Amino acid sequence: MQADIDNIVPNKENLEEQIKRIQDATSAAESLPTDLAQLKDARLKIDSMSTEAASAMGKIGLLSEAAAMSSVSLKAREEEAIKIVAQCQEAYRIATSTGLAGAFDDRAKRLSSSMWGWVALLLISLTLGGCLGTMRYDSLTKVLDVSKPSWGIIAAHVLLSLFSLAAPVWFAWISTKQIGQRFRLSEDYAFKASVAKAYEGYRREAARIDPIFESRLFGSALTRLEELPLRLVEGDNHGSPWQELISSDGFQKALQTIPELRDKFMNMPKDIVASFGNVKKTISPESAKTDE
Q: Which spans are transmembrane here (predicted)?
């Protein structure tokens, strides 16, 4: 009996462990219905979430395809927008060059038209001067054809001829000055119009050949377009041919080189006044004789 007890005692720990397992199994068996219900609910939730996830994945797939298509469309639109912007910049450059060339060309045509108007006025003044000269020549010829010509009357006719021809000559001189200035301005504007018209074509060729050459071309064109037209207009405005002659460098040098010419020029007003006095004195006695 004692031997059997001794055989049982060493297995005490095993018995305790087995008893514990039995107790755990009993507790698990008691809680098994609850755990099964919870597991069932969890499985239902997992199935529902799986269905929702599958639906979401389908939607995500559709959205991904739409996003890919939109990306391709946006890329194409971006390339198209870049091309349109480049075309707009090109059109703006062409419009600027064309507008600038048109403005210069219009100005050149206006100056050319006004120049022809001054040419017509020049021809009119020359014709008028020729007619007046012919009339005064006939009058002077009649005075000289008499047997005893009167030099006083001849001098008077000469002075009248000078006065009558002064206005046409003065206007012809003004017309000539205007024609010269307008011709130079018209040619300048026409040249600038040609530069503006040809610039865009030359720029493309220069950009294709060498960027440095394109920069040089732009600098050259800008220099030509920046030149003021007033550089072609004379700075001194003379009121008559005599004033222009007196102000000329050649005449001033002649006065400094030839003292007699300077003295003669300084005494010219006095000589003119004296000539008028002599003519008056000459005409008065002859008029008295004619009255007698």
A: 116-137, 149-174
